[in-house]
Amino acid sequence: MNLPACWTSAIDQPDHKFAELARTRQGVLTKPPGSLGRLEELAIALSAQQRSQTPAVDKVHISVFAGDHGVCSEGISAFPQAVTAQMIANFAHGGAAISVLAKQLNANLEVVNLGTVGDVPQGLAGVIDEYIAPATGNLASEPAMNEQQVAAALDAGDRAAERAAQNGAQLFIGGDMGIGNTTSAAALACLLLDQRPEQLAGPGTGLNREGVTHKAQVIEQALIRHGSDRSPLALLASLGGFEIAALTGAFLGAAARGIPVLVDGYIVSVAALIGVRQQPALRDWLHFSHRSAEPGHRLVLDALAADPLLDLGMRLGEGSGAATAVPLLRSACVLHNGMASFADAGVSGAS
Question: Where are the annotated coiled coils located (predicted)?
Answer without folding.
Answer: none
